[in-house]
Design brief:
- This protein is 39% helix and 9% strand.
- The chain has seven helices and four strands.
- The strands form two sheets. The protein has a two-stranded parallel sheet with strand order 1-2. A two-stranded parallel ribbon has the order 3-4.
- It is globular.
Length: 152
C-alpha cells in the first residue's frame, strides 16, 4: 500500500539542493527531465561541478559517476540526484557504496515515469504511452536502499 504524498516540484528540490550546498557540490545525473532541471535550477558557480553524460542518453550514469567523483575527490561530500525509475538501472552498484564507505547523497525523486519519454509520447503520439509509466510496479525504495546498508 502506498501512502499519498504531497507533491513537491522537482525544480524546488534542485533549488533547495543548491541553497543547502551553497553551490559547493559535484552534481551528477542520468539522462532525462531531472538532468534538464539540474542544468536549469542548480546554479553552478564553479567549473566542473556538473557531471552528466553530455546528451548521450545514458540511463544509469549518475550513480557510478558520483562514485568516481567521490573516489577522486575524497575530501568532498558527494552528491547524486536521480529519478526513481532510473535508480533501478544501477541499483546493483549501490552495494558498493557502503562497502567502500562513500559518503554519497542520493536524492531520489519520484514521478512514477520515465518523465522525458512520457513527455515526448504525450506530445508526439497523442498520449499513447508505451513502457514509460510505472505507478504500480515501483518497489519501496527506502527499504531497497536500507537493504544495501544505507539509510533512506
Amino acid at each position: 500500500m502506498r501512502l499519498a504524498a504531497k507533491k513537491i516540484l522537482p525544480q524546488h528540490v534542485i533549488q533547495s539542493l543548491y541553497k543547502e550546498t551553497k553551490g559547493d557540490a559535484f552534481v551528477t545525473s542520468d539522462v532525462g527531465q531531472h538532468q534538464m532541471f539540474a542544468a536549469q535550477y542548480y546554479h553552478f558557480d564553479k567549473p566542473r561541478g556538473w557531471i552528466n553524460s553530455g546528451g548521450l542518453g545514458t540511463m544509469g550514469f549518475g550513480l557510478p559517476a558520483a562514485m568516481g567523483v567521490q573516489l577522486a575527490f575524497s575530501q568532498f561530500n558527494g552528491c547524486l540526484r536521480n529519478w526513481r525509475r532510473q535508480y533501478s538501472k544501477v541499483y546493483s552498484r549501490a552495494f558498493n557504496v557502503p562497502s567502500i564507505r562513500l559518503p554519497i547523497k542520493i536524492i531520489n525523486l519520484n514521478n512514477s515515469a520515465l518523465g522525458m519519454v512520457k513527455q515526448w509520447q504525450d506530445m508526439q503520439y497523442g498520449g499513447r504511452l508505451s513502457e514509460s509509466t510505472y505507478e504500480d510496479s515501483l518497489p519501496d525504495f527506502v527499504k531497497l536502499t536500507e537493504s544495501f546498508g544505507m539509510w533512506g
